[in-house]
Structures are given as C-alpha cells and as structure tokens.
Amino acid sequence: MKEQDCLRRFIFEKLGVRGEWVHLRESLQQVKQFQTLANDAVDSQLGQALAAVVLLSATVKFQGSMILQVQGDGDLRALVAQSTNERKIRGLVRSANRVSGSNLKEMMGAGHLVLTIESEISEPYQGIVPLEEDSLAAMLHTYFMQSEQLATRLWLFANKTEAVGLLIQELPDQKHYQSDWERIEMLADTVTEEEMLRLDSEEMLYRLFNEEKVRIYEPESVTFQCNCSRQKISGTLLALGREELEAIFKERDDIEVDCQFCGEKYRFDKVDVENILLNQAMGKEGADTQH
C-alpha cells in the first residue's frame, strides 16, 4: 500500500546533509472540507503550504505550533498552514470568488510570507520575507537565504487528491561540505512532479540518490486536528474590549463565533461574556466560566 499521511526523515551518511519527505492524502482532504477553494490552482497552493509546514516543523525542536502565512492584496488574500510538533495539521484559505493567475505570486499580488513558531517552552519566533517569487518553494528558499539560516531547499507538489514535499538541508556546523551540498541539491533538482506523486519515499530516494549512502527513518504520522477551544475564542472576544462587546449585544442576544479552520461553532450570551470580562479583571485572563 502506498505511503500516505506520513513524514519520513533521512540523512546522507558521511555527508553534511539531511532531508525529509512528506505525503498528505486523508489529512489534506480533512483540512479542505472546511475551506472554499476558488479553483484547482488555489487547491494546489493550500496542499503545497500544508506539505511545506510539516517539512519545516520537523527541522527544528519545539513544543507548540509552526504557522506558515502568505498574505497579499490579490485575488488570493491569505494562505495559512499550521503544524504542531506532533504533526497535527490545519489550514485555511481566504480569497475572492474568482482567482486569476497561474502561480502564487500572480494570485496573491504584493504581500509577504511569515513563518512563526509558537512554543510552549520558549519565546515565540517570527521571520518575514516579501512575496517576490513565483512559488512557495522559491519563497522559502529566499527566506532561508535572507535569514542566514542553514541552506535549505524544498520541492512541493499538490493536486486535488494529495500533496507531497521534499526538503534537503545542510547539517549545523558543517565547514567542509559545500561540494557535497551542491551535488545533493543538483540531484534533488531532477525530481519531477510525477515521481513525487507516484513513488513512495524509499523508491524516490533511490531514484535520486542511488550512488549515495542514505539512511531513512521510521515514518511519523500526520493527521488533521484543530486546536480551537472555547477558552481561545474567549481570548479573541476579550481583545474586542467591553465597549465593542456591549455594542454587539445591543443588536443581538448572543455572539456566535465559527472556527475558520474546522467550522466548530461557539456561542456566548451576555452572562458568558460578562464572566469572561470579570475573570480578566480579577487577573484570570483567558479564563471562561460557563453557566
């Protein structure tokens, strides 16, 4: 059975290069069922973003979430993909009803790419690059070059059924492996969309690197899971402030908030909101008492 919904790490023995391969299928479909996708091109961009964030989340050690956001002023206004350190993914798209353009830059217009790590055990990290390349893979290549991090390349492909991705990255503290990196990058650059979508990880790695000694690790499962909660939505309401909330209640009896990632509905009446505001005033910011 074809590998799916998993991440495979690999390393080149005796070389200063590591890599990752990812395939999304069921998890991708679960993300997409809650999104309105204007056309197949937008569908593909969401798949590529989800594959990318899974790959990137596995290159760093953290406990929490990595969020990839591409925002622009074109027909495709926002593309968001998130993965936890446990490979739980979710994503969303915001666009006009009709999206023109044959590549990501044309669809999004002027804007930027933001990569954020929200960690439970350390300060959040955020990096930003302008939206100047045609593809997400090229944008991420620019991001790593401009941020002076480890040399990193990605290859991303997606259709209506599945999304796949390949990443290679130099290992830290490598001083004598430039020629190795260039050789591995050149070999990886021969991969085709058909091969990525058709071949399992071991078949693809053999096709690309059969003259190299590659060690591949056990698969890590990737699943769809939204981490929204009533408490987090309460925090969003708090950010509006008492005055804005009271103005809303002059027009309606309750506030209903839909999660944009999974469609879950959260309902708050006046008593709920008053409790949220009181708890904040008492120093229990974010707490939520239901009745």
TrEMBL record:
Q: Which UniProt keywords apply?
A: Chaperone, Cytoplasm, Disulfide bond, Redox-active center, Zinc
- An example Gene Ontology molecular-function term: protein folding chaperone
NCBIfam families xref list:
PRK00114.1 (NF001033)
Origin: domain of life: Bacteria
- Gene (UniProt): hslO
Q: Does the keyword Nuclease apply?
A: no
Q: Which terms under GO biological process does the entry name?
A: protein refolding
Spell out the protein name for this chain: Hsp33 family molecular chaperone HslO
Keyword Zinc present in the record's keywords: the answer is yes
Q: Which GO terms describe its cellular component?
A: cytoplasm
Which InterPro entries does the record associate with it? Heat_shock_Hsp33 (IPR000397), Heat_shock_Hsp33_C (IPR016154), Heat_shock_Hsp33_N (IPR016153), Hsp33_helix_hairpin_bin_dom_sf (IPR023212)
Q: Pfam families recorded for this chain?
A: HSP33
